Structure formats: structure tokens, C-alpha cells
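User: Reviewer 2 asked us to show a designed sequence for the structure in our supplementary figure. I'm pasting the C-alpha cells here. Could you produce the per-position amino acids so we can include them in the response letter?
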């Protein structure tokens, strides 16, 4: 059953009517409803194009958070072979909000790390809705150290509302763990490729996405804070999230223009959740191209490439 977002309600009505007609025909084979159903399908496709052709930043936030959007596990299962998960930070616990391990991408040995939100109530609770605790970031650091030691490229898949802000996480050094993970991203001597597949929230996302190349799916978001959090701080009113989403410039299009993101990965009409197979294939193709771009620079250390990339950010604005 398709889950519709608030702004998709008119579309839900049309697609629902088309399905009702076809259901009636299945129960009564003598009925011929295909012509009427096809007309409704055409109307629905046109409306889908109109809705997604001019998404506001807030609507993009809603799409990025869609429950049926492909998650980290979906990408790993489809794009990587011989995936061997590695667990724990060798210090406190294993954080299920972060998954990662050794794998092969197009036959090449790599380390893959990502946030996993879960796909139903039980798994979302298990994965803490993709909000990592300190042990999650320390697990990522351990995996990046492993990749650096054996000369393996690192691929990260970002999808988190932000790092978990709970009391226990703060007591175990949440901010320090995030900072160390970001530092590790900058210091490893192997290529690091990152893709924002849904939400890229705050330092919890930066800790994985301080990469040689950063890509975003067309309707994903990447921001220092959620629109609701920003609205609560600036306007003392969480209902101002639409205005906050506009001000934050959190869309893939805005961030590419600002030079924070290197490329946008196009999604199927209606969002990645409408055609998961096509979305995952597009991400795989983008990762392959970015990996080839970074590894193809002979004589250049990937760490130096990252350093140059991040030092150049904002230089146009400063010059102006």
C-alpha cells in the first residue's frame, strides 16, 4: 500500500479511484473499465509531474523522510557483494543506528558505512531511527582506520535526522565522538565517497560526509539543523518549519550551487520510493563515477584532495 504525503492527497484520490475500478473489474470480469482507469492513470502522472516539478524546500524535507524511501540496508544489499558486517566500537557497545563492514563494489574491495533507520516500528526502535550514539561514530572510526590500514576506499551512505541527543550519549562523549569521526574522514589516505540518500542532519551527517566527493539524491536534504529545530530556536515556534526550510538552503540544488555538494543524483518521478530499483541503480552509477574520478588522479593523495576541497569552500563569498 502506497504511503502518500500530505501534499499528495489529490494524487491519492485519483490513483485510489483507478485502483477501485480495477478491483471492481477483477470481481466482475464482464466489466470493462480499462479505458477509464487508463485516463485516471494519465491524469495522475501529469499531476505527479506538476507536484514534483516545483517542490518547495519543506516538501523536499517530507520526501527525504518518506517511510518507503530506500534505506542504507537496501543499497548495501543491492550494490555490494560479499558484505561482511563488523560490529562494536571495542569500547562500550554496538550501535545499530550505524552499520558497516567489508564488501566489494563492482568487484573492488571497499569499506562501506551508513546510517540505518529501519523499515517498520520494531526495526526503527532497534536502529534508533538512524540517530547514532557515540559508539556508532567510534565504530565508524574503527572501520575507517581498517580501510586506511589496508588501502581500501570508503563509501558512506548518509541518512540521519542527526546524532542522538540523549543524556547517556552526552555522558559518553557524543560531541567528541562526532568530532573524532569528522577528523578521521579528513585524515585517512584512501578515497572517501559519500552519498546523502535521505536526511543529512547536523554533525551526525558531517561525521560521515567529510569526503572527497559528496553526492545527494535529488530530493534529499543536508543541513546544520532540522527545519523544526531551527524554527524553535529562531522563532520560538516549531510551526515555522516551512520558513526555516527556505532559509536553511538545505536542498541538493542549493548545496550544489554553494559548492558544498559535488553532484545531484536524479530520482524517479515521484521520489526514490516510487521506483527503488531505479534509484539504487542511479546511486550505484554515481558512486562508480566518483570513485573512478578520485582514484584516477595518479600521484595525488586523496587526503590532500579533501584538504583542498574543504579549504576552498566559501572562498568565492569571501572574495566578493
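Assistant: Here is a per-position design you can include in the supplement:
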Amino acid at each position: 500500500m502506497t504511503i502518500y504525503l500530505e501534499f499528495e492527497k489529490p494524487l491519492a484520490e485519483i490513483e485510489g479511484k483507478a485502483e477501485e475500478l480495477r478491483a471492481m473489474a477483477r470481481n466482475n470480469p464482464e466489466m470493462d473499465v480499462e479505458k477509464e482507469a487508463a485516463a485516471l492513470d494519465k491524469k495522475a502522472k501529469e499531476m505527479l509531474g506538476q507536484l514534483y516539478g516545483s517542490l518547495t524546500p519543506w516538501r523536499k524535507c517530507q520526501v527525504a523522510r518518506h517511510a518507503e524511501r530506500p534505506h542504507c540496508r537496501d543499497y548495501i544489499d543491492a550494490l555490494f557483494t560479499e558484505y561482511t558486517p563488523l560490529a562494536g566500537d571495542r569500547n562500550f557497545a554496538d550501535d545499530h543506528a550505524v552499520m558497516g563492514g567489508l564488501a566489494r563494489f563492482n568487484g573492488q574491495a571497499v569499506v562501506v558505512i551508513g546510517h540505518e533507520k529501519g523499515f517498520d516500528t520494531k526495526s526503527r526502535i532497534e536502529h534508533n531511527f538512524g540517530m547514532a550514539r557515540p559508539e556508532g561514530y567510534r565504530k565508524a572510526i574503527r572501520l575507517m582506520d581498517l580501510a586506511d590500514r589496508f588501502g581500501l576506499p570508503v563509501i558512506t551512505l548518509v541518512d540521519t535526522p542527526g546524532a542522538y541527543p540523549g543524556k547517556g550519549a552526552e555522558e559518553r562523549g557524543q560531541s567528541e565522538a562526532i568530532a573524532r569521526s569528522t577528523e578521521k574522514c579528513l585524515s585517512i589516505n584512501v578515497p572517501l565517497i559519500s552519498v546523502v540518500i535521505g536526511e543529512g542532519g547536523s554533525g551526525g551527517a558531517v561525521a560521515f560526509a567529510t569526503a572527497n566527493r559528496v553526492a545527494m539524491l535529488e530530493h534529499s536534504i543536508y543541513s546544520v539543523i532540522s527545519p523544526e529545530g531551527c524554527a524553535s530556536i529562531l522563532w520560538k515556534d516549531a510551526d515555522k518549519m516551512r520558513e526555516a526550510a527556505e532559509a536553511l538552503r538545505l536542498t541538493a540544488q542549493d548545496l550544489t550551487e554553494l559548492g558544498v555538494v559535488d553532484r545531484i543524483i536524479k530520482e524517479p518521478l515521484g521520489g526514490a520510493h516510487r521506483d527503488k530499483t531505479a534509484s539504487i541503480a542511479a546511486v550505484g552509477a554515481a558512486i562508480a563515477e566518483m570513485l573512478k574520478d578520485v582514484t584516477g588522479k595518479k600521484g595525488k593523495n586523496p587526503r590532500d584532495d579533501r584538504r583542498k576541497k574543504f579549504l576552498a569552500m566559501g572562498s568565492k563569498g569571501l572574495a566578493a
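For the response letter, you might also mention the following. DSSP finds 15 helices and eight strands in the chain. The mean pLDDT is 91.
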